[in-house]
Every structure is written in C-alpha cells, then in structure tokens.
Amino acid sequence: CKAACLEGRGYIHRVRGRLDEALRLDEEALGIYDAAGYLRGQATARHEIGGIYAIRGEFERALAYYQQSLDLWGRSGDLCGRALTQHQIAYIHRIRGELDEAMGLCRESLKLDKRLGDQQARAATLHAMAWVHRARGQREVAFDLLAETLKINRALKNRKGEAAALHSQGSLLRIENKLDDAVETLDQALRLRRDIGDVQGQIERLN
C-alpha cells in the first residue's frame, strides 16, 4: 500500500541522514494509517517518527511518539512491536541517566523476546543492556553482553546489528585505553556501515 511504500522510502532517507525528508514521509504515512484506523501501521509510523526525534536529540518529542506507539502495540496485541519500542524508550532513559528505568524496560523486553523466540530482538535487547551496564561502570558485563550480541547478529547475517555491536565494542575498548584494538574494531564497524549505506552510523564512527 502507499503508506508502507512511504515508510520504506522514509527509512532509506533516515539511514542516509536525510532526516527532514524521512520525517515528512513518515508523517504522510501516519496520516494514511490514522485515516484507515490500522493499528499496527499507526504504531509503526509513530515508532519511526520517534526514532527521528531521538536521533535529533529531541527526547521529549521522541518519548511522546514512542509512548503512543507502545499503547497501540498493546491494543493490536503485537508483542514484537512492543519489545522494539521498549528498546528505544530504554535508550532514551539511558541517555538521560535514568538507568534503573532503562534496565527495567530491558528486562521486560528480554522476557518478551524469549516468549516470541525472536533472536534479532534478543540481540537488540542485550545490546541495550550492555549500554546500561557501561553507564554504571560495569564494563566487563557490558563486554560479555556485546560479545553475545555480536554472535547472534553474525549468525542471523544482520549486518546493521553486527556493525552496531562492533561500534559499541570499539567504544568500550577506547575507554579501556586499548587503542589499537579499538581502532581495528571501529574500522570494522565503519566498513560494514559503508557496505550497507548507513550514513548515520558512519557519522557516529567518525565523531
């Protein structure tokens, strides 16, 4: 349908760093889903819009859209969508230093991932948990979780997830002052992100 095509185009623009165009397309898709009363489409579009605001650092607006998305996932009975949105809310709590809230959401998501048997979602949840442990200074635990995340993403051939896990590992290695290992790991992440056209991810590596 037209709305799904708009969302697909929005995702491409988002990955390429064209956030204004991504937002315009996702908002147009949302208008179509709202008019049709299609709950899963409404939830997905709000999730995507929340993600754009999160990238911009507009966390209050992001949380508002994520909460709306979470409510709609609940109404539609889509546990996978619910887990995905919880990951993103946990990310914002972690960025704002609200670590107990972030970890609570991650643990809830991990239970959902197990119930669904969704390994890709499980990898994303473990990655989010690793960041919380890193923020708490528990770097060894974070390294272990990232290693498991990387293993799962490689098994699934999820290159975007693999690149994200490598980036996080490299960032931790840099903090540990293991600079040669950090550069090698971050360069692996950068090569993967170039291969898949992830401009936003490349910017993260270069900053």
Give the biggest sheet. Answer: none
Q: Regions with pLDDT < 50 over 5+ consecutive residues?
A: 201-207
Give the N-to-C terminal Cα separation. 38 Å
Number of helices: 11
Query: Looking at the structure, what is the overall shape?
Result: globular
**Structural class given helices, strands, pairing?**
mainly alpha
* Average pLDDT over all residues: 90
Percentage of residues in strands: under 5%
Could you estimate the helical fraction of the residues in percent? over 70%
Instruction: Please report the total strand number as a whole number.
Output: 0
Order of helices and strands: HHHHHHHHHHH
- The rounded Rg comes to 17 Å
Question: Could you explain the architecture of this structure?
Answer:
- The protein has 207 residues and is mainly alpha-helical.
- Helix content is 87%, strand content 0%.
- The chain contains eleven helices and no strands.
- The chain has helices at 2-15, 19-36, 39-56, 59-76, 79-95, 99-116, 119-135, 139-156, 159-175, 179-196, 199-206.
- Helix 5 runs antiparallel to helix 6 and helix 5 runs parallel beside helix 7 (119-135).
- The chain is globular, with a radius of gyration of 17 Å.
- It starts with a helix and ends with a helix.
- The relative contact order is 0.08.
- The model is unreliable at 201-207 (pLDDT under 50).
